[in-house]
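Lecture 7 notes. Example A: sequence first, then its structure tokens.
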Amino acid sequence: MACLLAALVVQGCGAKGENEPDYDYGAPQMRTAIEGKWVGQRVDSASEANSTTLTLSYVPADIHAQCGTRLLESGNLEGTLAPRCMDTSKVRVTGTFETKEAGAPESVDGSFGVDSLRFYGGGFLDLGLGADRQLGGELENGVLTLDVLASGQRRGRYSLSRVP
């Protein structure tokens, strides 16, 4: 039994198996979904609406993964021997974030990711903003909802749509 469990853990999700489904998207589809100019406003402020612009550019990969992404649970394995897999794809993006409050554009750098074998046009965005802040959010149904985080606290929420 121990040999079987060891074989399953070693095989895991890292190698492409015969029965493993293929991703139905790649970097070009992810690039099309996220790259461009996004405009909107802060949605959690009672003050006057302030315009916000996020401009993102796709950065081509200069390295390639040597194995698949996987997540192994060590907790309760009731009735299960196989490791838990996570099908994640990420592309790097850079750009600028500009709010009426800040006045000048600030550089952003991070990733756009999709946690699925199938691509439905959405995903999650994780960007560094300056030395001590982050932009984190989700693209869903053509709307990018972003939270500005500083010291683990939400400092603002924005809703943006792409400019055609």
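Example B, a different protein, same format:
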Amino acid sequence: MKLQKLLVEDGLFAHPDAFSRLESLTDGYQNHSKLARRTAHLLDSSPEGSSQNFTDAMYGNGHPLVYAAMFLDCRARLATLTAVVDFLLTEDDATSTSQEITRLLGLPSSMNSAIVKLRARSQLHLYPIIWQRFVYELGGMILDDLESEEMAHLATACGANIGTIKEALGVWDILFPLQGGSWLTRIGGERIQVLKMVPAPIQGLGALRRQRMHEAPKPDGLAYFSSFTDVATATFLKRVNNIAYHLCNEDDCPDHHLSVAKELDAKAFEPF
């Protein structure tokens, strides 16, 4: 995990030109992908098959080290997106630029036209800002019941229009395509769209932010979130809020040295 963290920071800040940054980050991303799954398997002591630690991190209360690995995986994709945008905006030849990007990301050549079209988007320079806000402020989530308000919030915060926000949130499907489905998905019957592989403590930050964005009243329990969404979604928000709170609280966290826990502000959270 330390190596991937260093690779991302080196890729973002140590290279003077956009191509070198992109090459460094994509190399690190390709060689150190699926860090969260590998970490979970190490904790399971089972290199093959399904991982209980990974399942717990995705759907329950996971191990802090798996959450840290998920955070680093997500951070690597954010950094790679930033490098792609920088490279697209600093090169004049759209065709050769798109070919270099597809090669470095390991994408099929059929994606060249999609990268060329991406380069032509008028507010492409705002994509890294939009994604940082989306992940670190909103927890990589959009509530169905308040989608228009949350899209408007992102647009205002990032100086973009609503159309740009919607286009930007689809860019991971272009740069990091999954074998099936989209990076933005739904969980069960909950009225919420979530970005895959965002760790629960970061989702907890999004839950906390919504308490303030939507001026939720302060009764105890589910009513705290049920005031602006349905019960199933409120239950999900309550769960990730509590995971973030307990991970930030050193008395509750088994790995006191974990950097992701130190970066979160435990005082901002209140458990239910």
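Note on Example B: The longest helix spans residues 64-90. The chain is about 60% helix and 5% strand.
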